Task: inverse folding
């Protein structure tokens, strides 16, 4: 690395660190991303784990007190008609006890709006509770007649959940990892704009270009400064994830998120080439702009591209071997692999890093060429 | 020593430079005087290689910016047309940055930075961030950046614009001091009094061409006018775009 490049890097870093706007942008992104996810998960966990009572109206409950108390044990509570928010109404016939005693069939009416999706799980709970009650009584009757209740069970299904803790976590963490990738693209954005379009706006670009420094060193120094921010931002996001999830009772969903320090460091290393690519792209775009604001507008358009790729891959779960080697997707695969228990091999990681670096380098060359053009520099 | 020969530069049908030729010698202050739009800034930019002329040649100490841009830039100090400062950095950081880009390091770097701070009498502002600096203070920072590496040639583009009397004096004394050291100073201006007071040699340019090139006194003699201003007006044929 040449001395000039290092000088530019340090100077831009110093300048950016004093810029509260850049600092806030970088840090807040890393901070609020995982935070937002945590809030979302909090809601999901609560929804999935807490089973509230189902309130039903039972007509003729005085005829079948045992049934009512059985239902109550199953979390199905009898209330007045107005309070039955599940919209379910059970009707127990007047001759319930006598039919039961004589071993005849009792018909219980389950009345509800079956087209209503919201209460479908409540309806299922009520009917399965009734089925269970039916089986209990039927078994008792068979036993009384000297027949094993097993004759009623010809085929039985036995549920075996193959979802491990890790794989269930992977689904959730996959979404979180999208935030890590986004942190790479957004944390360094302000710095990139400030060192390029900002430099032009404050009229210091011409003087800088007239110094005895290779243009590539200038551009690379600026890109390094922006990527330093990008890496710091993603590091912060990665560090925030386990911390934020301490407060979310994920274990209720059977999810276990553990991230060793070593694992985090490896991930950050994988993100370094991506940070360079992001900064290169941002410099390329914002050197075209004449002012900070103009650059911001352009960049927000351009940043859509890599983000769209990541989102589409994340939600469509599309896989192809090439993705392991391409810029952006390669890093995405590594991040995903680190959490779903299928780590990406060293070879794809290295090739992915190299392809990303090559693309970043090409972008920097393009920026350099632009800055050699007097038209681009002086806006002639 | 700066040597410009037959420089041509066209931007979209506008001839910014149209066969410009002049020399600026070591130990002299050369003033490039001309109305707005005469091509002064274009000429200076081609000296440090940010603009490639269509034809003609530029030499700084015998080096051409076209092929040896970095070597040329090491030999010149630039006070540019527009000098923006980084609001969040102090003058000392500005000066060190440029000095480092010129390859200064270690002890040399420290002594040169201190020297230039003392020379421009800017110790009182050197560790304050430049946000909110006055025009004069900004000029000092820009000048310090231009001379911190002790260039053999100094190029100033309209250095006195927007300066108060005290700042102009500092600038003038600095230029005289550098002339004593045998450096080559080339500055552009459209202010005549300044050129008349400072320059050993005046290059008057109009529409990208040199119309006169001599000492101020010789130019007066040549035109038969008593004042330099009248001589100038006669030479360029109009007084448009010139400040007295």
Result:
């Amino acid at each position: 690395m040449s001395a000039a490049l290092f000088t530019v890097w340090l100077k831009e870093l110093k300048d950016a660190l004093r810029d509260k706007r850049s600092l806030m942008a970088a840090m807040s992104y890393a901070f609020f991303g995982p935070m937002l996810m945590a809030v979302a998960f909090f809601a999901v966990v609560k929804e999935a784990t807490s089973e509230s009572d189902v309130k039903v109206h039972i007509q003729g409950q005085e005829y079948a007190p045992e049934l009512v108390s059985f239902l109550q044990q199953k979390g199905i509570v009898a209330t007045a008609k107005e309070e039955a928010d599940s919209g379910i109404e059970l009707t127990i016939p007047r001759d319930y006890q006598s039919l039961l005693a004589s071993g005849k069939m009792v018909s219980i009416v389950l009345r509800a709006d079956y087209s209503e999706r919201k209460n479908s799980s409540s309806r299922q709970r009520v009917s399965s509770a009734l089925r269970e009650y039916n089986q209990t009584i039927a078994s008792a009757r068979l036993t009384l007649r000297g027949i094993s209740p097993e004759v009623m069970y010809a085929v039985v299904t036995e549920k075996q959940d193959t979802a491990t803790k890790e794989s269930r976590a992977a689904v959730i963490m996959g979404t979180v990892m999208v935030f890590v990738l986004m942190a790479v693209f957004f944390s360094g954005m302000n710095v990139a704009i400030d060192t390029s379009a900002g430099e032009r706006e404050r009229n210091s670009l011409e003087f800088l270009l007239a110094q005895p420094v290779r243009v590539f060193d200038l551009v690379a120094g600026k890109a390094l400064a922006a990527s330093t921010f990008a890496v710091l931002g993603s590091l912060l996001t990665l560090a925030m994830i386990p911390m934020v999830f301490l407060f979310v009772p994920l274990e209720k969903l059977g999810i276990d998120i553990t991230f060793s320090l070593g694992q985090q460091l490896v991930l950050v290393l994988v993100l370094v080439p991506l940070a360079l690519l992001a900064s290169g792209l941002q410099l390329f775009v914002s050197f075209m702009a004449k002012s900070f604001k103009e650059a911001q507008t352009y960049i927000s358009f351009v940043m859509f591209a890599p983000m769209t790729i990541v989102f589409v891959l994340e939600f469509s779960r599309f896989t192809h071997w090439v993705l392991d080697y391409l810029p952006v997707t390669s890093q995405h695969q590594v991040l995903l692999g680190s959490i779903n228990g299928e780590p990406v091999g060293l070879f794809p990681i290295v090739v992915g890093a190299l392809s990303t670096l090559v693309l970043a380098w090409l972008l920097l060359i393009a920026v350099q060429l632009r800055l050699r053009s007097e038209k681009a520099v002086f806006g002639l | 020593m700066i040597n410009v020969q037959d420089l041509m530069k066209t931007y979209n049908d506008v001839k910014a430079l149209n066969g410009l030729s002049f020399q600026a010698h070591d130990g002299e202050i050369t003033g490039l005087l001309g109305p707005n739009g005469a091509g002064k800034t274009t000429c200076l930019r081609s000296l440090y290689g940010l603009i490639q002329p269509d034809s003609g040649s530029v030499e700084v100490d015998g080096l051409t910016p076209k092929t040896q841009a970095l070597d040329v830039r090491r030999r010149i100090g630039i006070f540019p047309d527009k000098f923006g400062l980084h609001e969040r950095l102090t003058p000392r950081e500005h000066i060190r940055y440029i000095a480092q880009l010129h390859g200064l390091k270690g002890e040399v770097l420290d002594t040169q930075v201190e020297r230039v701070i003392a020379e421009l009498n800017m110790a009182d502002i050197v560790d304050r961030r430049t946000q909110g600096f006055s025009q004069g203070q900004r000029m000092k920072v820009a000048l310090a950046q231009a001379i911190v590496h002790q260039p053999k040639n100094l190029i100033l583009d309209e250095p006195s614009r927007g300066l108060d009397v005290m700042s102009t004096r500092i600038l003038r004394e600095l230029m005289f001091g550098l002339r004593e050291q045998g450096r080559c100073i080339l500055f552009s201006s459209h202010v005549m009094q300044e050129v008349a007071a400072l320059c050993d040699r005046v290059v008057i340019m109009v529409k990208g061409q040199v119309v006169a090139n001599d000492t101020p006194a010789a130019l007066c003699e040549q035109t038969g006018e008593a004042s330099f201003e009248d001589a100038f007006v006669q030479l360029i044929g109009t007084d448009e775009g010139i400040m007295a």
Observations:
- The interface with chain B takes residues 3-4, 7-8, 11, 14-15, 18-19, 199, 201-207, 209-214, 374, 377-378, 380 of chain A (CB under 8 Å).
